[in-house]
Amino acid sequence: MMKSVVAELEGTVLKDHDVFSYFMLIAFEASGLIRFALLLALWPVIRLLEAFGRGDYGLKLTIFVATAGVSLSEIEAVARAVLPKFYLDDVDMEAWKVFSTCGKRFVVTKMPRIMVERFVKENLRADDVVGVELSVNRFGFATGFVEEGLDSIAGRVALLFGDDQEPCLGLGRPNSTCGSLFLPLCKEESHPPFTTTKRHDDHHIDGPMPVIFHDGRLAKRPTPATALLILLWIPIGIILATIRISIGILLPISVANLISRLLGGRVVVRGTPPPPASASTSGVLFVCTHRTLMDPVVLSAVLRRRIPAVTYSISRLSEILSPIPTVRLTRIRDVDARKIKRQLEKGDLAVCPEGTTCREPFLLRFSALFAELTDKIVPVAMNYRVGLFHATTARGWKAMDPIFFFMNPRPVYEVTFLNQLPAEATCSAGKSPHDVANYVQRILAATLGFECTNFTRKDKYRVLAGNDGIVADRSSNAAGEFLDALKKIVGSFMLH
């Protein structure tokens, strides 16, 4: 008979038993800064309720403040695109090893089921999850209350197995609210901390499924201390970002580089870049990994000359504010090929063949178009580090990406120039464009210590945003777009 396990999520599968930071993520990403600040302000009240043995009331208050009035679809989107990364970072691998030895796996949580179901089923490979159920009105908005609370957990766990069966193994804390409800139903109990020394059977899985795509602006899990730091830093960060962006637009690159270092920014350069193209020769194609919209801008700053960049589906505001020329592609292969060739005849060009950014240590599939158009290919491994805010988004406003990047106290970019591809590794030697693209992807991944994947732009946006990532071109004038973007910038910090 296949062994079954029921595991408590908080404090067992996840190392941290405190769920407050996950509700802070819901508040920030699904609603905005005001709700985020309100929930943080209530944290002492929630802790006081727990201290007096009324942790259930503290949980209900947390759920109400984080979700009341928020559309269920938005909560689902955050649970799909944002939360799994933070859950995975907190997984107790020893507990996972025990959990993964069982053929049938179930998880119990005190959080709303909608917040954890995606992670539990896809990353932990569990069969089902039992948690509290959010109440939703007829318009699809959460009321902030729960329909099925913690007191129903034991009954719902029993229903999973039927009258004649009971779970073989229960993993949890006997003194916790969830653990005390379902552990008595199990034939055998095991409590954290866990120690494992060997694989128990053929059902063992080495690790949870990795998170390749994730979204959201916060780079750190917003524990109360981190959330307070974020709130205090945001006004300073906005001012700092405004200064940094203005310097990049208004001043020469050499001067901007010096001042950016004084303002906390840092660029680490490795390898030797090629010299500028001469008037008698075609330009070099810099093939870069795509981490943020800042990649070609940083490349130009390092080379101390403005390298035009191939772009697609970025906001008009980003193009207006860009300190380097941009070449907007159409996704029509012949048209794009002619545009790139014309630009290479004029000089150097930067391209990111992944077509979209990826935050995790993975490279998406490279488009092979660049390999067909030139043999003068210089791979460039780009990477970045930030402390508070991510500089990419799939669900939000892309025009905010550079702003969030420059809002970080000490943003760091790493640029590694590889040698120009030898002639025998290019299409001129008979290699197919796909072979050349795959080769460039592999050497860039090896340089960064990343893993190559076959995922594409469409895969990313379908996972994170439920669309293909196509942004319709807007015909409004630049001034109108600029004002519209400013409204969005203000709105993102108010109501998101």
From TrEMBL:
The entry's keywords: Acyltransferase, Membrane, Transferase, Transmembrane, Transmembrane helix
GO BP field: cutin biosynthetic process
Its membrane topology: Multi-pass membrane protein
Cellular component, GO, one term: membrane
GO molecular function: glycerol-3-phosphate 2-O-acyltransferase activity; phosphatase activity
SUPFAM superfamilies in alphabetical order: Glycerol-3-phosphate (1)-acyltransferase
Protein name: Glycerol-3-phosphate acyltransferase 5
Species of provenance: Perilla frutescens var. hirtella (Perilla citriodora)
